[in-house]
Design a protein that fits this description.
Blueprint: H1 10-27, H2 30-33, H3 43-50, H4 52-85, H5 110-137, H6 149-179, H7 186-217, E1 224-227, E2 230-233
Antiparallel strand pairs: 1-2
Length: 235
């Protein structure tokens, strides 16, 4: 397999190039690494110069990906925060019992506890995703950042975003069930199917990127094992 075909996205491509360069440095004599060419350049200087365009392309790709994902995470955080304030079923405003005045009407139901938990997970995971993608924007985008730092942040950011989407869908589904629990009908089945379809659609569209990022972060750590007689490659 051509090493330039490993990974998807310019940032992950840059990571593979860095890992290959590191693997080569481990098997060649140290004198070769410290030897300069006729222009007075070291091997690392030549690598940096030849991969400058790829580094810039990787920076652009990473920022575009972080922008799109952060926009989605912000929308999710806005929606689930509003859902936490306007809870399904409303509050107890009857005033019959002073100790229950203002409490949610569905507070004693299991489905309400599941809704509260799902909404909280969606809020916190979306906020975490926003912070992670924001840290990608503030990165230095130095050459070494593409080896582990940026792919790791992207992996955790995508994971938090996926968790927030699943949790938001669960919160919406259980809120609909709470509202119509007395009238079980075909509409509940339709809502559940649409919610599942939404989650599966997101997983289908972003699983490839998430998997490649996960593969780059963890599997690529052991992709190259330097040996004096050559390089063993595990893919």
């Amino acid at each position: 397999m051509n090493r330039q075909q490993v990974g998807s996205g310019a940032a992950l491509h840059m990571q593979k190039e860095l890992l290959w360069f590191k693997a080569v440095k481990e098997i060649v004599p140290r004198s070769y690494i410290e030897t300069k060419n006729t222009k007075g350049e070291l091997a690392h200087d030549i690598f940096t110069e030849q991969h400058e365009n790829l580094r810039k392309e990787g920076e652009r790709w990473m920022k575009e990906t972080a922008t799109a994902c952060m926009l989605g995470a912000t929308l999710i955080a806005t929606v689930v925060f509003a859902a936490a304030i306007t809870i399904p079923g409303g509050n107890d405003d009857s005033g019959d019992k002073a100790n229950t005045l203002g409490f949610p009407n569905f507070r004693k139901r299991l489905l309400f506890d599941i809704f509260t938990l799902s909404d909280s997970v969606a809020l916190f995971s979306s906020m975490m995703s926003i912070v992670i993608f924001l840290s990608i924007f503030t990165s230095r985008y130095a050459e070494e950042d593409f080896r582990y730092d940026l792919p790791t942040k992207l992996m955790f950011g995508l994971s938090a975003l996926f968790i927030s989407i699943i949790s938001m869908i669960l919160a919406f589904t259980f809120s609909m069930i709470l509202i119509r629990v007395e009238k079980a009908s075909l509409s509940l089945v339709l809502i559940s199917c649409l919610a599942s379809l939404t989650a599966l659609t997101f997983a289908y569209l972003y699983f490839h990127l998430w998997f490649n990022t996960l593969r780059s972060v963890y599997i690529s750590m052991f992709l190259f094992l330097g040996r004096k007689r050559g390089i063993r490659i595990f893919v």
